[in-house]
Amino acid sequence: MKNTYHTYADTLKQLKQSNQLRALKEVDTRTDKTIFFKGTPCLNLTSNDYLGLATDIELCRAFYNSIDQSDSATLVNSYGLGSSSSRLLTGNSQLYEALESRLCQWYGLDAALLFNSGYHANLGIIPALAGKNDLIFSDSLNHASIIDGIRLSNARCEVFEHNDTRALAELLKKMRPHFKNVVIITESLFSMDGDRADIEALVELKCKHNAMLYIDEAHSVGIYGAQGQGLCFETGLADQVDILLGTMGKALASHGAYIMTNSTLKSYLVNSARSLIFSTALPPLAVSWNLFLLEQMAAFDDRRTRLKQVSKEFRAALMKQGLTIAGDSHIVPVITKSNKRTVDISDALIKKGFLAFPIRPPSVPKNNSRIRFSITSDILFEDVKEVPVLISDSMENHNTKTLQLQEEY
Which of 238, 160, 245, 176 is nearest to 211 (CA)? Predict the structure, then answer.
C-alpha cells in the first residue's frame, strides 16, 4: 500500500523543481526599520507596517502609560486578556462598542463592524451577501481571501480583466437583469501590483446597474485620506461603497479588521457572517490598542508624506535602471518573470542586507514573478538607493549564466 503522504511529498517535490517551494522564515527581532534574518541585520523591505508604527517604541510606551494603575486593573478585572467567547455570546465588550463608534466618527459613516482579520471578514461577508441566485463580479487581481470568500459562496462569479471598467460595464449590461443581487468586488490598492482601482467609475456602474460595491482597502488604510481613512475616503465616495473593508494589521500595526457599511447590512451580517458568529472575539488588549492607534491617526501626516515621497524616489531609481515595475504607490513590485531569477535576486539582496522576498505563483499570475518591495515611512531613500543597481546587476548575471547553460546544452 502506498504511503499516506506520498502524494503530498510529490507535490512538494514539484514545487521545489519549479522554484515555488515556500518555507517559514527564520525572522528574529525587529528594531525600527531593521530586522534580523537568520541572525543577520537587514533593512526590512517586506513589511506591511507602512507607517512604521509596529516598531515605534515610544508609541508603545505611550499606550501602556495611558493605562494608569487603576485603569489597568479595570481592564484586567473586567475583561481579562482573552475574550473567551464569540461576539454574539459574551465576547462583545464595551471596548468593541467604543472602537466601532470611533470608526463611525472617523469616516463620518453610520455603521462599523469589527472582525478578527481581513481574511475572516472576506470569508464571512462575501458568502453572506451572495447566494445561489446572485452574481459576483471580481477583479482578476483580487487577493486570496476575496477569492476564497467567493468560492465559499454559491453565487456565480465573473472575473473581469484587471481595472477594466469598460469590460465590467458590458458584463453588467448583459448579465445584471438575470440575477437577484449583484456584487462588484475589488481592492482599492492592489496588494501585488501597487496600483489603484478606478473608484469613481465603479461607483457610477454600481449606481447605474443597481449593484452592491465591495472595496477592500487593506493596503490603503492609514496612508490615503485626510487622516488615513483610505482611497475611498480620499475620493469623497466612501458613503457610496456598500462594504468598505479596512484592516488593523498593516499600516495600523495591530490585529483585526473592520467594515464600514450601513445599519441594515451591519445587522444582516451579525446574523449571517459565519466567521463573525463562530469566532472567538479579539482579545480586549488588542481592541484597546486599536482604539488608541485610531486616536493617533491625525498626528501621522508627516509619516504619510514621507512614505509617498520615498516611494516616488525609489520608483524613479528603479526605472532609471531599466527595470520593469508596476503601480504608483508604496507597494513597489519589480517584475522579474521567472521563478528562478526572482529567487536569485532575492538571495543576492539579502546577502547585501536588504530583506525582500520573492513573490511567485499562485500569489501572482504564471510567468509574472517579482520582488515586491514594501516601503515604510521610517525608510529613507539613502537606505535603498543601492537596491536598483543590485537588482540590475543580479539580473544581468542571471541572464549571462542562463545563456552559458543554453550554449553548453
Answer: 176
